Amino acid sequence: MKWEPAREDTELARRLGAGERVAALTLQACLLEVGERRSLGMPASLASLLLDRELISPLELAELLPAREEFGPYRLVRLVAEGGMGQVYEVLDVGSGARYALKAITELSPEELPRFTREAEVNARLEHPHVVRIHAARLKGSQPYLVQELLGGGDLEQRVREGQPLEPNAVRELALKLVSALRYAHGHDVVHRDLKPSNVVFDDRGEPRLVDWGIARSLRANTLKLTAGGI
Ligand SMILES: Nc1ncnc2c1ncn2[C@@H]1O[C@H](COP(=O)(O)OP(=O)(O)O)[C@@H](O)[C@H]1O
Ligand SMILES: [Mg+2]
User: Fold this and answer.
1) What is the gyration radius of the CA atoms in the chain, in angstroms?
2) What is the pLDDT along the chain (231 residues), one digit of tens a residue?
3) What is the whole-number distance in angstroms between the Cα of residue 121 and the centre of ligand 1?
4) Which atom of ligand 1 is nearest to the CA of 154?
5) In the annotation, is 194 catalytic?
6) Which of 61-87 are b and which e, b meaning 16 or more Cβ less than 10 Å from the residue's Cβ?
7) Cα–Cα distance between 222 and 118 in angstroms, integer?
8) Where does 113-213 have alpha helices with state H?
């Protein structure tokens, strides 16, 4: 089912109202604000506003958000980005209330499935302060999805487009961090092959992480055999 933020908001508001978990006036004000943000082209949702304002705990919210069969225990909070391959959502794990980023890949043909498998497999092998951490990779029917740590600082492309130009020192620091991630990956026989600003995402503390290992190439013989077999 397609994610339609207005419909999700209405359903969540109904459930919240019925449970009286958030005061009716507060809820009304939040809905108005979400509408305003959305009319400005911002990816807003009632769920994310309630979370950001700490008006409800993540676990309570997770239980109220509509379940979607295709995403197992993960409840959709907000659309973070929409790309050629699919969407990235902020989600809550209904079991723990933990927040994650969920990358859903739609319209994947059988020939493209190895790309997804490779992204999950390569990413899972890399543990580095400047590489996004992967939590789970799942396949539900023909729709695969990746669950990653949620990075709340936006990507470098957005930052450069919307903000001030980076100071030379900041550029140098950023470059050194990305080089350390690439060097680490190369040490693990992985080449990213898609280094660009939209694949550099910042966490809440402003630390950059490399994402999108979908076309990364593993130089390890066993992985090459595996992907060549289309598994
Ligand atoms: N873990 C994450 N946390 C927050 N935002 C993310 C995360 N991963 C990706 N994004 C956002 O989603 C966008 C698309 O994700 P990406 O993995 O690059 O997919 P695509 O294959 O569509 O380029 C990124 O440019 C970034 O803005
Ligand atoms: Mg990308």
Assistant:
1) 19
2) 678 888 999 999 999 987 778 888 999 999 999 999 999 988 899 999 999 999 999 999 999 999 988 899 999 999 999 877 789 999 999 999 999 999 998 777 778 788 788 888 888 999 999 999 999 999 877 788 999 999 999 999 999 998 888 999 999 999 999 999 999 999 999 989 899 999 999 999 999 999 998 877 777 645 444 444 433
3) 17
4) 27
5) yes
6) bbebbeeeeebbebbbbbbbbeeebbb
7) 12
8) 113-125, 156-162, 168-187
Ligand 1 binding pocket, CB closer than 6 Å: 80-81, 83-85, 88, 101, 103, 132, 148-151, 155, 198-199, 201, 211-212, 214
Set out the domains of the chain in order of their start, with CATH numbers: 108-231 (1.10.510.10)
Q: How far is CA 58 from CA 82, 151, 211, in A?
A: 24, 16, 25
